[in-house]
Write a structure and sequence with these properties.
The protein is α/β, with parallel strands linked by helices. The chain has 15 helices and 19 strands. A hairpin with a 4-residue loop joins strand 18 and strand 19. The longest helix is centred in the last third of the chain and has 24 residues. The termini are far apart. FE3-S4 cluster binds next to helix 1, helix 3 and helix 7. The site of iron/sulfur cluster (SF4) has 10 residues, from helix 7.
């Protein structure tokens, strides 16, 4: 039987989809990348903005014909829109067989059995916590890849006024440290070299449950052999602790990148968003991070056109962007979410103004990104190789490029053979020292350091060390 999963939304959904696929393997479902071949199609959905939600229904609309041709096809809708809408999805899209919420993954095989037995449609949007349930599944080496996400906590207790996440993902719940360590050890054994630990606010990891704190979790993960790089996302500025900041300097495997969403540059807007920090407090955190870890890449999220946002408020956002000098950012037009309080706030900003502000913000950042990338020209960066890159027409005849990322999460392309790289050809999972030669809008081009070796996975720990020393120097 063939399973096709379509994922919309954040990295947590990517992780959940991977876990779903691995668990359904045990039921005899093999993943296919051809929708037309599928016996089971699952749609993992996102409710963060109206646009994301609309995507779900237009996708489902396109499945009507497939379902008519093949009535045995099972169609399931999971994730945040499923959690938000529940049974209502069945009245809007009658051919859906299964609606499953964000906390029903452990029950999914049983739900699918029910549908297979002809007892559908089934709806399970129960928020009963399943974190203590099944252990995470580990992929086989051939499918594991080099970089993977690992969810360490689910849900959110912060209730930012614009945000649907606390309502669709439930209360903050952390996984026990040992289950996380075991999972990452399993991934390392399968060839994974980089893990990104996921949570809506990793800084409150383990607090409710009385587990170790997040900084200690990072340290424990760093002792896992074979894992060479660790990243995490997201840290909420209001409780980014000094201890976590110093971890960037102390833990060699922790990549030099922090994603610290600020959302807005005006205190009035931040207060009305219920973000619980001020502009100054945010800037002070950034200063501390940079003092602890010079050169660290900093990225952020922004919302433009939050209800009541004035031109002056928006100017303060642009000013904050100039002050921080981000390496990159994500920016979104504010979107009403029916479950979130801001949907009822008056003084809505018009679509035209939101569009204009988004355009101004992105144009400013484009220059910043280019400048920050340009700062790296001439430096040597250690790149974790992920795969073959795309051949550029201008480089015809020079061989296929390799692509990977720096510790600061910037994509680097380089050609190994002709430019003086000696020793073993790179391969996914190997580390290569690359001199950055050119900064492009979204990536860097470089040349392997003359005479350098690409480092074998067994030597990975030593190589990570050399990178940290370079950064410190
Ligand atoms: N937990 C993370 C954010 C998760 S949602 C944090 O607190 O930083 C990812 C991003 O989506 C948010 O940072 C925000 O910029 C954006 N977002 C959330 N709700 C939104 C809404 N209603 N309209 C527009 N953007 C939104
Ligand atoms: Fe949403 Fe705020 Fe929680 Fe982030 S911290 S998920 S923006 S409620
Ligand atoms: Fe979207 Fe749910 Fe993630 S709303 S951003 S998929 S937590």
């Amino acid at each position: 039987m063939n399973l096709y999963i379509h994922t919309i939304g954040c990295q947590m959904n990517v992780y959940d989809s991977e876990q779903i696929a691995l668990r359904l393997q045990a039921m005899g479902y093999q993943q296919t990348d051809r929708q037309g071949n599928a016996d089971l199609i699952l749609l993992n959905t996102c409710a963060i903005r109206d646009k994301a939600e609309q995507k779900v229904f237009s996708y489902l609309g396109r499945l009507a014909e497939l379902k008519a041709q093949k009535p045995s096809l099972i169609i399931g809708v999971g994730g945040c829109v499923a959690q938000q809408e529940g049974r209502k999805i069945l009245s809007r899209v009658p051919f859906v067989d299964l609606v499953f919420g964000t906390r029903s993954l452990d029950r999914l095989p049983a739900l699918i059995h029910t549908v297979q037995a002809g007892k559908g449609p089934v709806v399970d949007v129960d928020m009963t916590d399943t974190l203590g349930g099944l252990a995470a599944a580990i992929p086989e080496s051939a499918q594991a890849g080099i970089c993977r996400f690992v969810t360490v906590m689910r849900g959110c207790d912060n209730y930012c006024n614009y945000c649907v996440v606390p309502y669709v993902r439930g209360a903050e719940t952390s996984r026990a440290p040992q289950t996380i360590i075991d999972e990452i050890q399993g991934l390392a054994n399968a060839g994974v070299r980089e893990v990104t630990l996921l949570g809506q606010n990793v800084n409150s990891y383990g607090k409710k449950e009385g587990f170790c704190d997040f900084a200690e979790l990072l340290e424990r993960v760093s002792h896992i052999d074979g894992i060479c790089r660790i990243r995490f996302t997201t840290s909420h500025p209001k409780d980014l602790s000094d201890r976590l900041i110093t971890t960037f300097a102390d833990l060699e495997k922790l990549c030099h990148h922090i994603h610290l969403p600020v959302q807005a540059g005006s205190d009035t807007v931040l207060r009305r968003m219920n973000r619980k920090y001020t502009r100054d407090a945010y800037l002070e955190r950034i200063r501390r991070i940079r003092a602890a870890c010079p050169g660290i890449a900093v990225t952020s999220d922004f919302i433009v056109g939050f209800p009541g946002e004035t031109d002056d408020d928006f100017q303060q956002t642009l000013d904050l962007i100039r002050t921080v000098g981000y390496d990159g950012l994500f920016a979104f037009k504010y979107s009403d979410r029916p479950l979130a309080p801001a949907a009822k706030f008056p003084e809505k900003v018009s679509e035209a103004v939101k569009k204009d502000r988004l355009g101004q913000l992105l144009a400013l950042q484009e220059k910043n990104t280019f400048r920050r990338n340009g700062d790296l020209v001439g430096t040597v960066q250690t790149v974790l190789v992920e795969r073959r890159g795309r051949r550029l027409p201008a480089l015809e005849g020079e061989g296929d490029p390799w692509t990977g990322r720096t510790s600061g999460n910037k994509v680097v392309n380089f050609i190994w053979d002709v430019r003086g790289g000696a020793g073993t050809e790179p391969a996914p999972g190997r580390l290569v020292d690359v001199t950055i030669q050119r900064a492009l809008a979204h990536s860097l081009w470089g040349m392997p350091v003359t005479g350098t070796e690409s480092t074998a996975p067994g030597e990975v720990d030593a190589a990570c060390g050399s990178f940290a020393q370079k950064m410190a120097g």
